[in-house]
Fold:
Amino acid sequence: MLVILLVPPTILLAYSISERHRNETSSIYAKSLTLARTSVDNASSLLNEAHYILDGMIARPLIRALDPSRCDPILHDLRFWYREFANLSVIDRSGQVICNSTSEVAQKLPNYSIRKWFRSATESKSFTIGEPIIGGTTNLWIVPLVQPMVDENANLMGFLSLTVNMARFKPSFVREEFPAGTEVSIIDSSGAYVARSVDTEAKNWLGQQSPIAHLLKMVLDTQGNAATSVRYQSEGGSEIVASFMGVQRSNWHVIAEIPMGAITTRARDVTIFNMAIVFLVLAAAIGAATFVIRKIERPISSIVATAVKQMRGDRTARAAELGPTEIITVARQFNLMLDARDQAERDRVGANERITYMAHHDLLTGLANRTLFLEGIDDARVRLRSRGEPFTVFMLDLDGFKDINDSFGHPAGDTLLREAGQRIKSVLCETDILARLGGDEFALLRSGGTSDPDDSSTLAIKIMEILACPFDIDGSKVVINTSIGIAQAPADGVEPDDLIKKADLALYRRKSDGRNGYCFFESRMTADADARMQLGQDLRDAILNGELAVHYQSIIDISTRKPCGAEALVRWRHSRRGDIPCDKFIPLAEESGLIIPLGEFVLQRACADAVNWPSETKVAVNLSSAQFRSANLLDVILHTLAESGLAPDRLELEITESLMIETQFDILPVFHQLKKLGISIALDDFGTGYSSLSYLTMFPFNRIKIDKSFTQSIIMRTECAAIVSSVLMLGRELGLSVTAEGVETEEQFELLRSRGTHAVQGYLFGRPCPVSELDLVSPRFIQSTASAA
Structure:
């Protein structure tokens, strides 16, 4: 009898221990492979992107010319496109750097001929990853990536290189979902550490030999670069599962290590639990063997049958809870144990699914990330080749998002991004893929449709309309617009990176021509981008070579009818293209960072010229937001005034409303310091921006300048006349002088004079001219008016 009663619990105990150990071991192996694959995807994506950038640079004739004067500005401009990479360099065959993206004009450039990666790249003539080093300017660990440049006969011409912060390769994972002691690392083929998930500083382990480097050699000898998992015993005696996986375009390998100790602990707990069940069954059998022998035969048989079914793979089988209370308790505990085992299996599957999800989705919006988006384009490309299905890539940018982020804070900005993503999804098909690539930049893949541009236009309009509806941010209604760039396959190409780049060029064109719209890629956009880059290089040369000029336009005091100052305006006469309009090269200077040296040149030239003018006249100089954000603005102004000898009260700085929107309170201390020096500050183009009256009370302005669009329509449009009158009244109440720009007729002049305008400027008193032609005593209009009087 006792033997019969002990058989089922014994079978259950043996089966439970075996099943638990098998499941836990399988879970550890699966998690280890998933961790390795996620880190490989991250490293491979970064290396592929770097390889794509280097290949794209090599294709440029200006780069292949190996001419410092032609390639240096290109690299300077490219660093604003590829902010994740640094120190873009062109190197000749001897290892001498001839230009890079970070050097100043007079800086001596290094020679890399003694570097190990230089010799390796020279011998292989292929993409090479250098040894990690500490960056000279950042003091951070970086790794150089090098692409040889060969001619049509495969002769070596030189090299292109860039560097990546080693922290970008650091593997990461949610530690709470893995056993303690889990680690992911990247080592090279020699077994030296390249990156680790540990939090210690890189100097403590970078380049050191991994203790399991010998396992990597064994895996490479037997399995090559195929994903492989092995089980080994550490120096401390712990059992560990390690998964090895190679990284594309490198000699790097990812190793994900998970200790097996958790399995032993859980197996011990299960054993204790089942032993308790055995003793319960034994106690029940001894206590009531004779009395309940016939009553327990059927429920015991049910438990035995259930155990057999479980061993045969029927995981739904459960024991019937029949018979005496003791047997029912045993059956119930048996069923609870089976339920716990099934729940653990579901938890393991769920954890793997969450890891996979995080590797392919943006955590803020839940949308696809760049990795999943590129995979979607790859799948669409396969369908295009096999079934002829065209597809379209859209790049979207939320206009004005930065202003909202700055005004309401980053949490509000995150809320807007999430809602914007949901709105866009509401007008898409199930087969479309919407991704957030970063910041306020979204990407959309539509496949399975037609190649008709009208279909893409319709979708773009739907997206703009749905996003134009006001957003509720902290109780305020906020409206944003959207700019969209569109590239179509196969018309514009089929490669993922190429299509994204072309859609990005179309987006840039849309934003350049005026935001809130969409634009299709055209082949000339690539040429336009190159031409724009060349114009930027010419502008850089013009600044360095002193080819720019400063012209002046008189400002007339209406009460005295005499010049009270002049506004400095920069002019550029290109040696080949002639006069370049300001609205062409000023935005280019702002985008490329050249606006700072350009602005300093205008300030220095204007102050040097104005010191020779009558003592009661001022010179007005425009300042950009980039100049205000620079830390040395006050030093530049003080140095310029001291060098030129111009009194501070004869300098007036003009800023636009957009400057305050971009920088807000950051510039307020600078304003007060300028005022203490005696420098005047004018709010330029008033009425064309947000025209927030709070700016006039918050910032210490001396003057308001009415935009010429109101001045030139003051006679024909009553609403413009009303706006001008309102601004004049506002200026009187706040104690601010008011200047009207764009005065071109005597009728406009008389009307402005009668309304109480303090000063005017415009073509009526002469066009901007060189300082040698500037008449600050008796301009043409003042002479004619005086003669008539």
